[in-house]
Amino acid sequence: MSETGNRLRKLLESPNFDPQNYVKQLSQQSDGDRDLQEHRQKIQTLADETAQNLKKNVYKNYRQFIETAKEISFLESEMYQLSHILTEQKSIMESITQALLSTDKDETSKEMQAAFPKETEDLKQRTLTSLLEKVEGAKNIMDTPGRHLVYNGDLVEFDVDNMSPIQKAHAFLMNDCLLIATWLPNRRGTVKYKYNALYDLESFAVVNVKDNPPMKDMFKILMFPDSRIFQVENSKVKKEWLEILDETKKKKASQDKHKKEEEVPTSPVRAEVSNNPFDVDDDEPADAEECVDLSLEWIQELPEDLDVCIAQRDFEGAVDLLDKLNEYLKDQPATQTVKELKAKVDERVRQLTEVLVFELSPDRSLRGGPKATRRAVSQLIRLGQSTKACELFLKNRAAAVQTAIRQLRIEGATLLYIHKLCNIFFTSLLETAKEFETDFAGNTGCYSAFVVWSRSAMTMFVDAFSKQVFDSKESLSTAAECVKVAKEHCQQLTEIGLDQTFTLQSLLVKDVKAALLSYKDIIIEATKHRNSEEMWRRMNLMTPEALTKLKDEMRSCGISFQQYTGDDCWVNLSYTIVAFTKQMMSFLEEGLKLYFPELHMVLLESLREIILVAVQHVDYSLRCEQDPEKKAFVLQNATFLHDTVLPVVERRFEEGVGKPAKQLRDLRKSTRPVRINPESTTSLV
């Protein structure tokens, strides 16, 4: 930029710049119109340079913005993972604290019961009685001696079929049964609830319902043949319900077992004591206790070591410790101390399984691809949870594929979008298949699950494919190219022995059929419209270039066209017949690209209907035309249609599908030009 331009720029950028004074001074200093024009040109040049620099800066900053956005996205993902880790560690610490508190509470409760058994029992009875006074129709529940309240809380019952809320309820868990009461809309005094159902603890099972927002914090009660679903306030309350229900059911089962053992009469034969000093009881439990040595340091510290491994996410170390324990206890008798140890270890196994399941949940980051799940999958398989590992792995990959398809931007040409869609989907499917084969090599029973999953994934792909290709009413040529691309990508799966071509065809056949029939109707309407304006005149292409182009188009379709052209730009055929031939051959080629065995008759009948429109028009013209010259020209067009076009259509169809086109052959034979008499018309039969 010149020195004058720099001075002008500084002047305009000055904060004290006044446009009116500047123009006024400039007018006074200028000698005439020429000076003002030159100054105007300088300002315009400066404005153009400023706009160009601004545009460059915008592009430069735009690239920086994209890079910054990517870094922010990566950082967000890492923070998301870190948040999950912290949440997980917090939940582990809370569970440990809760376990310690519950242990202290149980010990205090036991001490109170041992010191004041009667007072404790009376307190429980009074608590239950005061609560049941609020339930209408529940007076006789307290008739059972020894019955007391364990836990209670508000619930919301949901319909099992459509997961819609039914009613508010309140549950009373007692030491031998579960009472469900519903809320009264019109309360009467202290009565708040109405008796609904009473279940013995042995008559039902409790199942955790997996959270699926907005349906969360639910559990299911199974009573053959019915079931009921309840929702609680939050996940903490849900956990308390599940744990207390399970613990109460176990206590009830243990008490019933002890009662039965006490009621069994002692056999007098067993009460006899042998006087033979050489008789040895092989099933003496004391000897069995001495057979298992659990005083080893690593066994004593095993539960704590498992807790540390789970907290530090050392899943491999935790499973190694479990394998070591199982190997040590493999041939050992199941003594009471062994059972107690296994009970402690089983609780850690449950926690470890929950953590591994969370690692495979779709809520986790999906950026790592299929290999990112290998660690959790392999440890679940080692824990004997291969079926669960297979299910979670496939759900994880389904979520990843769905996310990738959803994030794909729909921009530009449809064919370009389909190329990107096929590349993303089939590459993900191939990687998932290879990773599945690696992870579940020793579990052949899981392969059927992968085949079912691949079909559901293909359904997801076809939904996105059809929405973009067929629902948007793209041309038949574009649809044919898109289907061809999908078929080619589908062939990649044969590398691993998975052929999804039939699945792809069966899912696309409905949309492809509709597209063929729709385009057939368009061609028929266009042909009828041209037939209505037919003048039976030779076609004049005006320029040699246009004639050459038409010859090339006919040659590419496989039609011999040379005998119908001369040295000039005239073509000895009607415009209607030439346009019909081009449209007909284009439909045939696109139809062959879209061809499935299920669409054989659809394509064949469509071709037959299109040909009949042209044949009937020529037949009608031959019968009605009175001018001998025009009759001869119509006959020439009929001969071209019958002897040149129809054989090419028949041959190309048979080459494309590998089957004879009997309907087209019969149509050609039935429309052979027949001379009625030498001097008059020639008609098509």
From TrEMBL:
Per the UniProt record, the lineage of the source organism begins with:
Eukaryota, Metazoa, Chordata, Craniata, Vertebrata
Protein name from the UniProt record: Exocyst complex component 8
Residue ranges with Basic and acidic residues bias: 252-263
* SMART domains on file: PH
Sequence ranges assigned to domain PH in this UniProt record: 148-250
The gene from which this protein is expressed is: EXOC8
Ranges where the record places region Disordered: 252-285, 664-685
Q: What does this protein do?
A: Component of the exocyst complex involved in the docking of exocytic vesicles with fusion sites on the plasma membrane.
Q: GO cellular component annotations, sorted alphabetically?
A: exocyst; growth cone; perinuclear region of cytoplasm
